[in-house]
Amino acid sequence: MADVVVSLDELALRVLDTPANAWSRYVVGIAGPPAAGKSTLSVHLRDAINARRPKSAQIAPMDGFHHTNKTLRVRGSIDRKGQPDTFDVAAFLSALERLHTTPVRQALSWPAYDRALHDPIDNAIDITDCSVAIVEGNYLLLNEPGWAKVRSYLDEAWFLDEDTDVIEPRLLQRQLDKGNSPDQAKRHVTDSDLTNARLIADGVHRADLILRVHGDGYLMTTR
């Protein structure tokens, strides 16, 4: 393994320098614990790729595959929302397969998660013309039944790492922003978010490279 500090432009070039296929998409997975900055990295990577090759990259977030609140209430799982079994992993795998098998420029859409409604929205993201799909989510490298197959649909996988003492206050603020009391927020972070973070960390060995925010760039460890 080797460590080097890289810029977003260098990460974009890493993706763009991969062997091109005229009809299929290149799928990059960005995994890591909650509040590590995966969404921010995904947006910046998309923008850096599109600055060099306009309209070629799009984000395909895993969050669109949450089970609906209605489904979770029926199952008695609403209090555990965000844990692996509260996602529709079968639908996620099917969508990942379509990312690879649907030719570029043939109509293709992707669900999104609406943080105002706290529910997924079908067909919210247009993937039709993109040749690079950035799939972002906590459990992309989870080596458990169902989830373990996700890795086979990623052309490469990145793990964005961060220390617990950095992500914990971010997670607490998220819960407070949702209207939870300080006690409720602390309980959710301790019992759910940080437990999930430890589970997610078990998949780091399945990543092609590990990233950690380092100034304006990222410390990159390749395998």
Architecture overview:
Helix 1 (8-16) crosses helix 2 and helix 5 packs across helix 6. The longest helix is centred in the C-terminal third of the chain and has 20 residues, at 182-201. The strands form 2 sheets. Strands 1-9-8-7-2-6-3 form a 7-stranded mixed β-sheet, covered by helices on one side. A two-stranded antiparallel ribbon has the order 4-5. The chain is globular. With 223 residues, it is an alpha/beta fold. A hairpin with a 2-residue loop joins strand 8 (209-214) and strand 9. The protein is built from 6 helices and 9 strands, in the order E-H-E-H-E-H-H-E-E-E-E-H-H-E-E. It has helices at residues 8-16, 38-52, 69-75, 89-101, 164-177, 182-201; strands at 2-6, 26-31, 57-61, 109-114, 119-126, 132-136, 156-160, 209-214, 217-222.
Rg, Å, rounded: 17 Å
Ranges with pLDDT <50 over ≥5 residues? none
Inertia-based shape: globular
Mean pLDDT: 93
Order of adjacent strands in the largest pleated sheet: 1-9-8-7-2-6-3
Order of helices and strands: EHEHEHHEEEEHHEE
Number of helices: 6
Strand content: 15-25%
Helix content: 25-40%
